[in-house]
Please model this.
Amino acid sequence: MTYWSLLLHFYQPPTQTHDVLVKVTEESYRPLIRVLRAHENARVAVNLQGVLTDLLLEHGLRDVVDGLRELAELGRVEFVGSAKYHPILPLIPEGERKRQISEQAKTNRSALGRAWNPRGFFPPEMCFSMEIGASVHAAGHEWLIVSGVACPVEWPVNVVCRVPVNGAQLRVLFRDDIRSNRISFRETNPEAFVEDVARVGGDAEAYVVTAMDAETYGHHIKDWETEFLGATLALLDAEAASGKPRVEMVFPSELLELFPDGPVVEPYASSWSTSRDDLAAHNPFPLWKAPGNRVHELQWEYVEHCLDLVAVARRYATTPEAKSFAVNAYERLGPALHSCQFWWASRRPMWSLPMIYRGFLLLNQVAFYAAHAIAVGDASEPVKREARWRLAAANEVRLELERELIGSRAP
Model:
């Protein structure tokens, strides 16, 4: 018997437009929910990014949130934790990591009620480094999923590896990148997939974990939610009814009970878009912070200025006006760190001036509000002078980034 776990990642950026959100909902989210309702044997882990939860509720699409909640209550969905605004966790400070993980839980607990009880954790874009483990573990998660390229030991199919975290341990599930990509790029079908997965482990019990964007189904690949997922669930159900099941769908959390602990490992820093060539080139996060990518360099330099200005603003905001602007800066920092602005600047082959600039404008607001909070607060003159220098340096970065973008051509 092979146990198959599937994780679906539901996400749209904070800058997403109403029209696109509705289109994705119609093409992907609602059809997926219909498929999962139709199959009692469905067991799917869902990462509903908190920023998307907010967007769905704000844009009159509550039925998606309610549908996923109902599926969890029926035992067909298990929710996993993440970081609310989809930041690249290894690239932001520990304090911001903790805040975004906490806000993810707060948002989804409010929307999903008792159905929200995550045991596992999905790092946005599966961007992992050992530094993020403490924040994930401190929030109460038992396991996290990372890309298969991160696996530093013999591929585990019958044990669950562990990651050391401050004297404790997190279980780690490695995504089967090859099988996941076959699904994501329509390079398989239900019969071939089940036949392939059934052979994992030979005659012994084994497991396979696949994960992909939820939008793969119906939005990226028309009707894929029925042609692949629904048809695969029907095939598994038919085999079970015949008394000769070869593959059973289970939640990732169930794998922790089905299989013993494996070795303690330190997965490689990586993402689900990282290749082995990238690892060899010491480029673990190529779509978000690639060496030699000048736009990435400028984006992250501006982020550093924003983080510094917000920290100073929050420390010295004592007057009512200063407090108001410091709070506004801090609240905007979360969405301003979303990953898409960097992804669209990767040129692998993604490139979109509007998406890059739309994300940058959020960061620009953060810097402006924080700088004003410092200027009207009770900080000493040397502190204010340092803040003015920081803002001037940020503005120089902004100008260079704009020049870089204006003169750029699509790849």
In short: The longest helix spans residues 381-406. The chain has two domains: 2-280, 294-406.
